Amino acid sequence: MGREEFVKAMTFLGLAYNKEFDQNTVAVWYTFFQKDSFEDFKQAITRLITKSRFMPSIADIRGELADLRDPQKTPEEAWDGVVKAISDYGYY
Questions:
Q1: What angle in degrees, to the nearest 10, is found between the helix axes of 38-51 and 3-17?
Q2: 25-29, 66-70, 79-83: range with highest mean pLDDT
Q3: Residues 74-90: pLDDT tens digits?
Q4: Cut 0.85: pTM above it
Q5: Measured distance CA(86)–CA(24) in Å, rounded
Q6: Rounded to an integer, what distance in angstroms lies between the CA atom of residue 34 and that of residue 1?
Q7: What sections of 18-57 are H helices per DSSP?
Q8: What does the pLDDT average to over 5-32?
Q9: What are the counts of helices (DSSP H) followed by strands (DSSP E) for the chain?
Q10: What's the pLDDT score for residue 91?
Q11: How far apart are the C-alpha atoms of 16 and 50, rounded to whole Å?
């Protein structure tokens, strides 16, 4: 994602939490998110805004990005994976 897109997304995040970011903060945060797509980043912060009353940290946003890329399985899907592994490899 480009720096201008990132600043736009950070402005969106700041408006949601009534917080202003200085240039140093934006520069530090950009180093953690520059390789992510703008769409993924915007979707992650939008999801966090709807769930969290407090400003998310870098780790919170990274976690949300990870969930977007690899959504967690339902308990039924996870159990199916366990059953398949047992049948393929045995119970040890």
A1: 10
A2: 25-29
A3: 788 778 888 888 888 88
A4: no
A5: 51
A6: 5
A7: 23-33, 38-51
A8: 94
A9: 5, 0
A10: 76
A11: 10
How confident is the model at residue 37, as a pLDDT? Answer: 93
Instruction: State how far the alpha carbon of 55 is from the alpha carbons of 17, 26, 48, 76, in Å.
Output: 6, 14, 9, 33
Give the whole-angstrom CA distance, residue 14 versus residue 68.
22
Two tokens, residue 65: 């990005």
Q: Residue 72, class by beta-carbon neighbours within 10 Å (0-12 exposed, 13-18 middle, 19+ buried)?
A: exposed
Query: Mean of the pLDDT values across residues 44-53?
Result: 93
Tokens of 79: 């159990």
Nearest to 60 by CA among 42, 45, 77: 45
